[in-house]
Amino acid sequence: MLTSQGGDALRRATPGHAALVKQMFFDGLDPGLLAPLHLALDQIHEQILAHGTLPRPSARQTRWTATDDD
């Protein structure tokens, strides 16, 4: 169980962590690799939803599309 203090720390850390992951893993990729990577990650996500314990999101998440500027 996450305490309220832990939740606050997680919320403060999330933007910086997400920015670092995007920079380290995605920003330097050749644009031609983005579509196949997106397809592969979608398939992995479906496998996790089908065989794991995560609930299916209520709406399609599009945070990491090729058109994002952030």
Would you give an account of this structure?
The chain is mainly α and 70 residues long. It has a domain at 4-51. It is built from two helices and no strands. The protein has helices spanning 4-25, 31-51. The protein starts with a helix and ends in a 19-residue tail after the last helix.
Mean pLDDT: 85
Order of helices and strands: HH
Distance between the termini: 32 Å
Structure summary, number of beta strands? 0
State the major sheet: none
Compute the gyration radius: what is it? 15 Å
Overall SS class: mainly alpha
Which percent band covers the strand fraction?
Answer: under 5%
User: What is the global morphology?
Assistant: flat
The number of helical segments is: 2
Give start-end ranges of low-pLDDT stretches.
66-70
Helix coverage percent of residues? 55-70%
Organism: Actinoallomurus liliacearum
Protein name: MarR family transcriptional regulator
